[in-house]
Fold these 2 entries.
Entry 1:
Amino acid sequence: MFGLKPDLCELELSDEHYSLEDYEDGIARWCPGCGDHGILTSVQKLCREKQLLPEKTVFVSGIGCSSRFPHYMNTYGFHGLHGRAFPVASGVKFRRPDLDVFVVTGDGDCCSIGTAHWIHAIRYNMKMTVLLLDNSIYGLTKKQTSPTSAKGTKSNTHPQGSILPPINPIQTTLGVANVSFVAQTADWNPAHVYETIKAAYEHPGFAFVRVVQRCPVYMRDLYDAAVSDPTALTLLTHENGIKLHEQVEKSFQNIIQHDPSDINKGREYAEMKDSIPIGLFYQDKNAPRYDEYGACNIGMLVEERLAAINNEFDKYAV
Amino acid sequence: MSKTKTTSKEFMPDEFLHEEAIEPKQEVEIALMIEKQEPRHLKLPQAVPATEAEIKKQWRAIRHFFRTGENPNPVEVAGLKPALLAHFLNGEEPLTDYPLFLSEEKEFEHCSFSALLKNIFQKTFKEGEAGILFNNLQRIENYVRKYVAVAGNYCSLNLVFEPALNELSKIKIKGDDRINFLKDIEKFKSNFPETGILLGFSQQTPVHILVHLLKHQSKLKRNNFIAELHSVKSGLEDLLSVEKIKSPKEQSSKPGIDFAGELIEFNTLETLLPESASESMPQKRFERISNCIRVLAMAENILQKHDAIIYLGKTLADNQNYNWKELLHGFDLRIAEAGQSCSAASAGFRLHIAELSKLITAARVARLEVNNKYDDEIHDDYFSRFNWSYFTEEETSLCPPIVLVEETQNLLGNELHHFSALIASNKPVKIMAVNRLLPNKINTNGNESDDLFSFQQELSVLAVSQRSAFTLQTALHNPMHMLNGFAAGLSSASPALLHVLVNSILNDSITQNFFEISSAVEGRQFPLFTYNTKGEKWGSRFNINDNPQPYRNWPEYFFEFKNEHDVLEKSELDFTFADYIALNKVPYKNLLVVLPACWSDDLIPLSDYLELSPEQLYSKVPFIWLADAENILHKAAVPFSLVIAAKERLDLWNFIQELGGVNSFHVEQAIARTRSEMQEQKEKEIKEIESKFEKQIEEVRTTATGEAMNHLAGILLDLDRITSLPAPQKFSSPSLTPANKESKSPENLSLKVEAAEKEEEVSAEPWVDSVKCTSCNECTDKYPRAFKYNSDKQAYVDDPTTVTYAQLIKATEACPAKCIHPGLPMNPNEPGLQELIARAKPFN
């Protein structure tokens, strides 16, 4: 166009190159073997690849093991109230659209106490990357049934085994109006975790990623067999889906072509029982975003705002 | 609406006003931060209500302006420019293909500096290596661009590259990353060319390119040619020296044979030998060879005295923007008087070529003589008529060219006749026409005019019509098109016109200068094309592919703006000739900004207007989108005179498109004809098939009815129905044989793969499949000396001797990703090895 180079966006360059350790803060105090470690590394690698400015990046969480995440990121963080990660993150994004916002939440924080906020955050479709670290148990409080614990899970609250079927977070998210990005990955496949989080970050809206993960202390056996069984995962793939390296894709035995614009098929795959589906279930890049509406008056001077308010009031003048 | 208002300000609580009043600084700071990331959107204006009478009055003014182009009360709107360029013209300097790198070494090609960086990076590193350096190549380019601009848009690569890399190494990076980064820089540097020229965007750039190509392009070829001439010359000299030996004087002076003279009588011997063996060279041949040697001795002087003879038009020579002495240092520079540049170049060519012609003749004669193939009967005639038109392409390219540098305006004015004659004469003179889009004198009877039609400057099209000249129409904003075109034109054996568009006046803003040129190409004022006489057919000679969107009338671009309700809208917008005029002339004087209250269906975009039929044009007024300094969008009415000019430019563009094979009338006709023929053929086949099947259906119907009647009769007569039914053969499928099944079943394949895998040897050394590591700290916490993290924070085995085999197995079993492979024990004396090896087996 007009003799210009297509990569105009590269004009702004920071004087500092951030390496992995620039995004690390302290030693992660999760149990050895916890899936959270791998997800933390993937997120730090994403920050490095995108060279996100630490002072322009915010991690918001609620309560739970996974919600300790912001402590281990050398960026801005907000370790909030139980179940309230979404309203805090929405508030940040609404007034500071220039920041990169990440939400890290767990199966208790998101799917139990925070469900109402979860539903509305999906509908608001503000640009943020949401990671639901789902280990199907309350680990921080030492083994109570969570909303995503499989039926029959024995825990301190249900010693004889839980009696209700679990919430399916993918299916629930797909059921909310204005949903725009729903993906699932498994913590024992780091390459897929990384590419999924990357695709979520690049999505222009609310990108919801459920990470199926192990709790090595309280749910030791839940996915143990799955880790060494190549058929335990089913990869949803498509040219518009999550891009994997050819070698990584070859390591999967079950592969299904799924067009992420087909929400009904996505819902069908979300119900898969004999294997864990991972990949992109649904994406709509054109869904309306509430944060764009929120940002429309940023930059207005006080006088301009007063003039605009007066203008509105004047419509009712008699 | 009532005018008596009670404004809301009176109702505003004081606290609210106070609270807002202390915030602005912070809010503005945040807004500025956001602004830097994301430019402000273009916005539609808020419509100010107007009465019907006011609207009618404004529309009368619009229609008057459309008809006459007169706007008695122009309203000055600050910073008006074409909407598509608003973001670029308000922002920083955009990234272009400048600086341009001109190579002086054989291994490197001329290219944009950014392409050079990327090429050398790919040559130096494998995929995935040196990621930090790759992400910062842009930084080197930015530094070099600024340096080249400060250095007057011309500098040597070695002056700037070292400081650029030093600057790059100042980026703050921690730990091992920094050490690796510095190593990568060193490696990258070692593959970079040591010499070369960098050019920025300036009026002199085309001249620099011309000079560089003239100096370097044929130099190597010419040196090889001179070396060849030297060897041919020494061949000729050998011939003459043999001839000298044969002469009696030489023979008598040879002391070596004196002793034999006493024994042999040479005169008697000579009569016995065949005549030819000792025959002297005919005098004519002797003179021809001597003459050749004399001419060849001057080869170096003729070919290397100057790289080119350059004739420079007087007006350009007087132009203060060019320092010609410095620019054309080392060339034979001759200033041509006004109106005589083409004839001077033509005369100069005749003089210059006479000398070259002698040299080429001598070279050819010499080759024939050395090979003893010169035949007087044939070659005397041939060489008596020999002149430059007999030169081969190779020979022409060896000659230092005659170059004429002149203004387009002059070539189209007083010089037109001579220019045409020069091109038609097929003399390989290279003409660089510098077009500064100055008003053309042709269409205005010699008087300078600011008329829109003064833009008709089709010098290149005129040259193409002569068919024999390489013709390039190029513009300063596209350096690679210009460079490649210049190189092809200068190496061509035919005459060449290198017509290049540059800025008429340079102003302070590089961006403004750049868009002045690029918009001329985008607005189809100055389409780019190459006509290379080398192609076999017209289609392969004429190339328009470097134009923006060559298959469309006007280039169309994505356009985003906020509507009156502040909602983002996306659409496509054409860039027309009127947009070009709006950028390069004062827009509010040449166009009329229409008040939003008057926007109606009668205002239609210019590109749509130009496609309407005369009946549809009734009551319509064309407009283009402009944006002001505040990024507010305006519809600007276009006067009829500009519509006609745009139509004329579009006609020219369509003509060039057709020459380039786009929307060709003949092709379209052929396609339509083939399509209708195919359609007819298809319909005919369908009819044939239908009639054939109708017959078959009728036959089947008759037979089936007969059979059904038979069955019915059989059943009715209580016959054995089953025996009478035909066997169902049609749908039986061939079954797989057991052997086939065995060899092709997937289970068997997987068994084979497993067997093959089992045959693979177990690694003796312990190793970690790092790609699968989930960074859980399990192994690195327990055995920090044995396991470490790589730069991606995934584990690898660092020092296996620091752990026992038992500890290794413990780490392997604890690994949640199951990515540790313990290998075989290193210490054969470790206790309990049998059990440990058994535990290790599933992980190896």
Entry 2:
Amino acid sequence: MPKKIFKNWWEKIKYNYFQEFILLVVLLVLGTIFSLLTDTFLTIPNILNVLLQISIIAILGFGVTIIIISAGIDLSLGSVMALVGMGTAAILTSSTPSIFLAILGGLLIGGIVGFINGITVAYIHLPAFIATLAMMSIARGVALVVTNAIPIYNLPESFLFLGSGFLWGVPTPIYVMISLYFILDFILRKTKFGRYTYAIGGNEEATRLSGINIKRYKLLVYVVGGICTGVAGILFTARLGSGQPTAGVGYELDAITAAILGGTNLFGGSGNLIGTLIGAFVMGVINNGQALLNISSYVQNIVRGIIVILAVGISTYQYMTRK
Amino acid sequence: MGKNKGVNRVNDKNILVMKNISKKFPGVKALDNVNFYVRKGEIHGLMGENGAGKSTLIKILDGAYTSEKGGEIWFKGKLVQNNSPILSKKLGISTIHQEFNLIPELTVGENIFLHDFPIRRGLIDWKTLFGESRKYLKDIGCNVDPAAKVKTLSIAQQQMVEISSSINQNAELIIMDEPTAPLTKLEIDILFKLIRHLKEIGITIIYISHNIKEVLTLAERITVLRDGKVVNCINSKELNQNQLIELMVGRSFKNAFPPRKGKPMKEIMLSVRNLSDAHKLKNISFDLKKGEVLGLAGLVGSGRTEILRAVYGADPGISGEIELKGKIINITSPEEAKKNGIGLLPENRKKEGFIPLMSVQCNISLPGIDKIQRFGVVLNKEETKLAENFVKKLDIRTPSLEQLVIRLSGGNQQKVVLAKWLAEGTPIIMLDEPTRGIDVGAKYDIYILIDKLTQEGISVILITSELPELLALSDRILVMHNGRINGEFKKEQFKAEDIMACAFGTIKNGGDMGES
């Protein structure tokens, strides 16, 4: 049995990784433009800065990519991140301030909210869009109610290191992002859970009739997504230096954009984390380059939208017209 | 053509003439040079087994498919060119499908006028819409409120609305595809009256049905299709039920099938007792022996598929007992069925069989992935070995294990779905239409495979709408009719006519099996 289907590497890219390829081209073009127009863009500190800025979106993006691959969606990410932040900050400023407990608590909150999302979607059969839209509102509300809408300040220095410290000259969140990428990529590509995630997104009924407990695995998908949100919430709080109940508004859309830019099929069944990582990086570069050029943030929004349409449009068009 | 005294020609008598219609699908010739003539104002029965080509022919007529080169459609003496669903409607050809084209959230009146709302001063003229609708409905003897939402109507009433809508669109030829399938006895009588009334007002009807009695009472002429060819077109008065069945099933059997070498053993693997569901199945009981091929015959909608799905735990609301090797088991989900050693190759391979965007390898390993994983991590080498083994064994033609299943041909897709269950290695495999839509070669491969499996001690329950196939492969056949087992045939009793008659409910055999 020959291993190769494609005549050459270009065919393989064209069929399997076209979106990622387009994204790299976009990255190259933008990078060239920004390097030519500014002296600061192509410097190591600036690139590290971009990576730092995208780390939280990328981590949220990993989680939501897995959820989208299973043909779901999660709109509650931003709110849940705020809730996680408030929980973490509350533990840190309690009578027993333990960083370990705070991190555990943050992950737990993310996981629990993911669990609830999973129950409503997989077992109560609510459309994921509605279930997580409701959760977006609930999580935000809980974050505000529990803290009386008052931010929590004075977090310990050692905790802040997670968000704003450096290790060998590189910001700590970048390490977290990279390690999480490798862990989740392994899970998605090599484990039974990952296989089932693609199968459920690709054809839920066929997966069920293959004797697989799809409800359990759908639930698990949302729990994994929730834990990613937990990680992102902890890092975000550590960067801000405080727990902000109003933090993270709109982050879910950035995370979803990164996933879509990276070629994740919004209807499920296909996608990968490297695409999401590059997608988040492209978004970071767009924002960073425009900031360096002093383009107004209003205009930045317009440019970002146009780039999304172009990048996704080209590969969709290629897909529709091939054969 | 031409030799039948000018009847089969484009002329005033024939409202519809379809000439030299052929249609190929990948690996299958669905229609082979079909000539089909319908006279103006008649009720014309169109019959044939499942897969004989009736639906394809109708889809070509209403423009959903196009015929291969050389096919011609003449309607009302004019050649129809560039046919499309819109054009055929305009010409006056209307199809009442088994699934209605009504919009449940809109009112009856809106549905009747959906194609062309009456407009007054730029707005919908509701008075005319409802008034006219009431008239159309009254014309066909249906007293439904035109302002009622369609979703509140019974199936029979919805059918009436659909017919009214056709009349409103000036249909001159109405095609009815299995119109009585969802109706009660009383509703059927009303429908028949309506059909005769339509004939009186000059509308021509093509009536498609599996129900021989119905067609014989309604239709004046009957065209029988078999294997994509017209067997005959006959005056219904010159026919009786048995002759019609013979026309439908009588095909040559020579060497289309390999000899059955395997023999069922004594040991009973699976025993089903009083299986019922809320809708269709009534007190289904049967045994399945080790190494046996148990065939399920019956018409579409008779409950064959439902039995397999019930045993597999695919649908909720099942009552009854299932024993596996003498032990009562409780199956409420496919997962439990699989754990108990039961596999299902589902009827609809695209919707239920495989994951289109996954590779051949990943599809094959999907149900049996637990055997090739450690701590949740899939062992790549083992998986490749497993997939390679079955690709070879089933002769799946794929350039690579990495190929996405959606890019394979239908027959090879089907083999992948079969490989899934062979790889999982369940001792009981239920096959629902395993050879549907696949080419002759692949079919033969699957026949041989089924025989081989049973020699290894695997038990098979087989559903296929191709009767000769069922006769050749099965050791025993249960015949379903209306959700019950209407008869049991042992190998020496196999006779196509008897089994068909039993499936149509005209005779019974071994009535002690099903009904208690």
